[in-house]
């Protein structure tokens, strides 16, 4: 499978380049980033480029390399056009970048089907995070009072995290609507109670030292339950990325969430 990595110079891009190079079934054919020079190229690959095409021109790279899969770890502002271009060229998008709407996901699903290709958008590629979301979904049937605290490094652009949004969506499918907190509560400092999704609250912490962490906290009569996941480095996402590059070759349409590729 011929893979192009977009955002190759970034934190996730570099890790993905390493993971693709280390997998015998995947072939790294191209790396795309906004700005690239020789220093960046050797920093990304760790050695001579060995025929891997480096460019800031996504369309040209996808065409020239005859890519099967485009892995995107860029920015919320960039990723949308990248997905459009990949699908248009019949290249399967595997997207970790967060920050799209349900309508956009539905449109890309249709576009993938029209083109007869697969695609995947995964707000989180770490298996532990997928389990955390599933366990939280189950728990919410019995403990419907729930809030999320997600903690990330301070260079993260979007809030709340894509993982928190996906968790809220999964819980909303399972949980019976309930009034949380006091109906007359008042924020002395605006924003203190966090963001609101379907009656649930989400709080985003951004600090140096963190990678990616989330707590889903449930409250019941005389008890609380906390389900927590920690990615302590970006290797945690790589088995999911590699698996997705392979699986995406086998179906048509866009899958939203890695859990849909697991048994
Ligand atoms: N699904 C998952 O499991 C995970 C998802 N993520 C998500 O992945 C995304 C990337 O995260 P991260 O790697 O930390 O971010 P980084 O900022 O480290 O990397 C983003 C890279 O994309 C580049 N870029 C920006 N604009 C363009 C463009 N127009 N064309 C090509 N490249 C571009 C940036 O270049 P420059 O710096 O020069 O602007 C940078 O090298 C985020 O949305 C994050 O939330 C992160 C971790 C796990
Ligand atoms: O920006 C990050 O770092 C991460 N982004 C994803 C998200 O928004 O959920 C996945 C993971 O949490 C790391």
Please render the helix and strand layout as text.
Elements: E1 2-6, H1 11-21, E2 27-32, H2 38-45, E3 53-55, H3 58-65, E4 69-72, H4 76-88, E5 92-95, H5 102-115, E6 118-121, H6 127-139, E7 145-152, H7 162-174, E8 195-197, E9 200-206, E10 212-220, E11 223-231, H8 238-247, E12 253-256
Helix pairs in contact: 1-8, 4-5, 6-7
NADPH dihydro-nicotinamide-adenine-dinucleotide phosphate binds at residues 6-7, 9-13, 32-35, 73-76, 78, 96-98, 122-125, 237.
Task: Describe the protein in words.
- The structure is a single chain.
- The chain has 263 residues and is an alpha/beta fold.
- It has two domains: 2-121 and 235-261, Rossmann fold (3-Layer(aba) Sandwich), CATH 3.40.50.720; 127-232, Dihydrodipicolinate Reductase, domain 2.
- 34% of the residues lie in helices and 25% in strands.
- It contains eight helices and twelve strands.
- It has helices at 11-21, 38-45, 58-65, 76-88, 102-115, 127-139, 162-174, 238-247; strands spanning 2-6, 27-32, 53-55, 69-72, 92-95, 118-121, 145-152, 195-197, 200-206, 212-220, 223-231, 253-256.
- The strands form two sheets. It has a seven-stranded parallel β-sheet with strand order 3-2-1-4-5-6-12, with helices on both faces. The protein has a five-stranded mixed β-sheet with strand order 8-9-7-10-11, covered by helices on one side.
- Helix 2 links the parallel strand 2 and strand 3.
- The longest helix is centred in the middle third of the chain and has 14 residues, at 102-115.
- The radius of gyration is 20 Å and the shape is elongated.
- The protein starts with a strand and ends in a 7-residue tail after the last strand.
- The protein binds NADPH dihydro-nicotinamide-adenine-dinucleotide phosphate (NDP) and the ligand O=C(O)C1=N[C@H](C(=O)O)C[C@H](O)C1.
- The ligand O=C(O)C1=N[C@H](C(=O)O)C[C@H](O)C1 binds at residues 98, 123-124, 152, 156, 161-163, 212.
- InterPro entries: DapB_C, DapB_N, DapB_N_CS, DHDPR_bac, NAD(P)-bd_dom_sf.
- Residues 128-262 form the Dihydrodipicolinate reductase C-terminal domain.
- The active site is at residues 152, 156.
């Amino acid at each position: 499978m011929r893979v192009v990595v977009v955002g190759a110079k970034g934190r996730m891009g570099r890790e993905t380049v390493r993971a693709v190079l280390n997998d015998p079934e995947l072939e790294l054919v191209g790396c795309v980033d906004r700005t690239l020079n020789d220093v960046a190229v050797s920093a990304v690959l760790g050695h001579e480029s060995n025929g891997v095409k480096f460019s800031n021109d996504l369309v040209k790279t996808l065409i020239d390399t005859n890519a099967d899969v485009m892995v995107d770890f860029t920015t919320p502002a960039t990723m949308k056009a990248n997905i459009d271009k990949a699908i248009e060229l019949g290249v399967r998008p595997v997207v970790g970048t967060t920050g799209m709407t349900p309508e956009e996901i539905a449109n890309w699903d249709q576009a993938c089907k029209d083109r007869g290709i697969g695609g995947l958008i995964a707000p989180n590629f770490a298996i532990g995070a997928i389990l955390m979301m599933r366990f939280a979904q189950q728990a919410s049937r019995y403990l419907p009072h729930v809030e999320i605290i997600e903690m990330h490094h301070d260079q993260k652009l979007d809030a709340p995290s894509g993982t928190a949004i996906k968790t809220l969506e999964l819980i909303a499918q399972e949980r019976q609507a309930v009034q949380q907190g006091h109906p007359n509560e008042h924020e002395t400092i605006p924003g203190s109670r966090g963001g609101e999704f379907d009656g649930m609250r989400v709080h985003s912490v951004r600090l140096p030292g963190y990678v990616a962490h989330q707590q889903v906290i449930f409250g019941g009569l005389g008890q609380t339950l906390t389900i927590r996941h920690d990615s302590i480095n970006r290797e945690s996402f790589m088995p999911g990325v590699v698996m997705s590059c392979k699986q995406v070759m086998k179906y048509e349409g866009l899958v939203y969430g890695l859990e849909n590729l697991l048994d």
